[in-house]
From TrEMBL:
<dbReference type="Pfam" id="PF01219">
    <property type="entry name" value="DAGK_prokar"/>
</dbReference>
<feature type="transmembrane region" description="Helical">
    <location>
        <begin position="99"/>
        <end position="120"/>
    </location>
</feature>
<dbReference type="GO" id="GO:0016301">
    <property type="term" value="F:kinase activity"/>
</dbReference>
<keyword id="KW-0808">Transferase</keyword>
<dbReference type="InterPro" id="IPR036945">
    <property type="entry name" value="DAGK_sf"/>
</dbReference>
<comment type="similarity">
    <text>Belongs to the bacterial diacylglycerol kinase family.</text>
</comment>
<keyword id="KW-0418">Kinase</keyword>
<feature type="transmembrane region" description="Helical">
    <location>
        <begin position="34"/>
        <end position="53"/>
    </location>
</feature>
<keyword id="KW-0812">Transmembrane</keyword>
<keyword id="KW-1003">Cell membrane</keyword>
<keyword id="KW-0444">Lipid biosynthesis</keyword>
<protein>
    <submittedName>
        <fullName>Diacylglycerol kinase family protein</fullName>
    </submittedName>
</protein>
<feature type="transmembrane region" description="Helical">
    <location>
        <begin position="59"/>
        <end position="78"/>
    </location>
</feature>
<keyword id="KW-0594">Phospholipid biosynthesis</keyword>
<keyword id="KW-1133">Transmembrane helix</keyword>
<keyword id="KW-0443">Lipid metabolism</keyword>
<keyword id="KW-0547">Nucleotide-binding</keyword>
Length: 133
């Protein structure tokens, strides 16, 4: 492999990263739901540190956070493509948008369950300790 090949591969990776970053920033600037997911994710991370959750629990928290954000980005991409294809009302456009939104909702629901399984017993334990004092 020549130096030129290595350089062009390197710049291709850089371009891929730059475009993906631009996509993330664009969506973050315009999508209220995505902003909400970032705020909620930050709260989850702070709670995870406060309660000193285990390594396995961290894995579930990380999967929940990144999964929901990745799906919200995909949902945003679907919305953009639908809007690009048609401004008119079309049942298929409605289905595409609603199904993409449903994918986020399903994953977010799972994340809430994970959050409850991890944090609820810890919060209850905390209250029990307070009540004893
Ligand atoms: N071209 C269309 N044809 C039919 N139904 C549509 C069309 N565009 C949007 N809808 C329906 O209207 C709803 C709201 O669409 P709208 O584009 O206002 O918001 P969104 O882009 O889906 O969501 P967000 O508020 O997160 O940007 C969609 O979920 C879909 O049910």
């Amino acid at each position: 492999m020549g130096l030129k090949d290595k350089t062009s591969k390197g710049s291709r990776w850089r371009k891929t990263f730059v475009y993906a970053w631009q996509g993330l920033m664009d969506a973050l600037g315009k999508e209220k739901n995505l902003q909400f997911h970032f705020v909620f994710a930050s709260i989850m991370v702070v709670c995870s540190f406060i309660f000193s959750i285990s390594r396995t629990e961290w894995l579930f928290v990380i999967l929940s956070i990144f999964g929901v954000i990745a799906l919200e980005l995909m949902n945003t991409a679907v919305e953009r493509v639908v809007d690009l294809v048609t401004k008119e009302y079309h049942p298929l456009a409605k289905q595409a948008k609603d199904i993409a939104a449903a994918s986020v909702l399903v994953y977010a629901f799972m994340s809430v369950i994970i959050g409850l399984v991890i944090f609820l017993p810890k919060v209850i334990q905390l209250f029990e300790k307070w009540l004893v004092f």
